[in-house]
Design a protein that fits this description.
Helix content is 43%, strand content 12%. By secondary structure, it is of the alpha/beta class. The termini are far apart.
Length: 331
């Protein structure tokens, strides 16, 4: 099996984890004979060392300009970081010419902004770090920005959300190239999940909602997460917080930014998704385990939150990586 090449672009102010996370994934892969499946190299525009946003200095293997006549890499990876804020016309020009030559063009975090400036995302679906999705959409209206998924595949171009999402995307690419067993081996070595699906929202319910400052409300948030199959009515939750239902509902929304009902809905959908993704339990059993009571109730919740039924969600999750990513706004 021919060794695949991965070229990671470096620049001043790059986010170090956007570089090292995917590099560790690709470097951990081996072909059936035990030889490295990928040759990972790095290059800055002029070949000079770059200082990352965290202060680390990375020494590239090559100069991008010196690679003009070299064979195109199998995967060209563009990381993000604070260093994407300057316009960087020379780097953008290089990407505009050489990006389309790679079999696979990948960005991590705000690396998508560099690809967009080079016109490489025009007409495509893409994502980036949640804090920059509005900017990407505003500055590049030809790009179909999807703010929720942790990564998006559109043909030969793949874009991911912030930092650790680059690891998820790299694992998905290894699984596509070498199979699930190899991706699982790497994930175990790095002590990460094998694969968070690209359509998983960048925010879980716990991240999307603010953490309540008062301990009784924090305890209720944790209780909801740990007991999605319990009675999570406002009355029962208020009793746990030792508040009246009216006071509890008002305080919960004031401190978390969402109503108790909406928080419960998010937690239940997320729990149901994990069970559908990671277990073989039937839809009826999953619906009971997540507090829906009936498969029809869970189906309505999925259609409202994800735009698809539970059985279809499971089918798409376990489909080949090239399958179109779902939009997963849980708002």
């Amino acid at each position: 099996m021919a060794q695949r090449t991965v070229l990671v672009v470096l620049f001043e102010g790059v986010q170090s984890l956007d570089v090292t996370g995917p590099a560790e994934v690709f470097s951990g892969a081996a072909d059936p004979g035990g030889d490295p499946a990928y040759r990972v190299s790095t290059a800055s525009l002029d070949g000079a060392p770059v200082r990352t946003s965290s202060g680390l200095t990375l020494v590239p293997d090559h100069s991008l300009r010196a690679l003009d006549a070299a064979p195109a890499p199998d995967t060209l990876l563009v990381p993000g970081g604070l260093g994407t804020r300057p316009r960087r016309p020379d780097l953008v020009d290089w990407l505009r010419v050489h990006g389309p030559r790679a079999r696979r063009l990948v960005s991590v975090c705000t690396g998508a902004i560099l690809l967009a400036r080079a016109g490489l995302l025009d007409g495509r679906r893409a994502t980036t770090h949640w804090a920059y999705c509005d900017k990407l959409a505003r500055d590049h209206p030809a790009v179909r920005v999807e703010p929720d998924p942790i990564y998006v595949r559109d043909g030969s171009v793949a874009t991911s959300a912030g930092v650790t999402a680059g690891i998820d995307l790299a694992l998905a690419l290894v699984e596509e190239d070498l199979g699930r067993a190899m991706a699982l081996t790497i994930a175990r070595h790095l002590v990460v999940f094998l694969r968070r699906p690209g359509n998983q929202a960048q925010f879980s319910a716990q991240l999307a909602a603010q953490t309540a400052s008062r301990e009784p409300l924090r305890e209720v948030q944790q209780w909801i997460t740990e007991h999605p199959d319990d009675d999570l009515s406002v009355e029962r939750l208020a009793a746990r917080a030792r508040l009246s239902p009216r006071h509890f509902a008002r305080a919960f929304q004031a401190e978390t930014g969402m109503t108790p009902g909406k928080y419960v809905d998010r937690v239940r959908v997320e729990h149901a998704r994990r069970l559908l993704e990671d277990t073989s339990r039937g839809v009826e059993e999953v619906s009971r385990a997540c507090g829906y009571g009936t498969p029809e109730a869970m189906r309505r919740a999925f259609l409202k939150a994800l735009g698809t039924a539970p059985a279809e969600y499971r089918r798409r999750f376990h489909a080949p990586p090239s399958t179109t990513v779902l939009s997963t706004s849980l708002t």
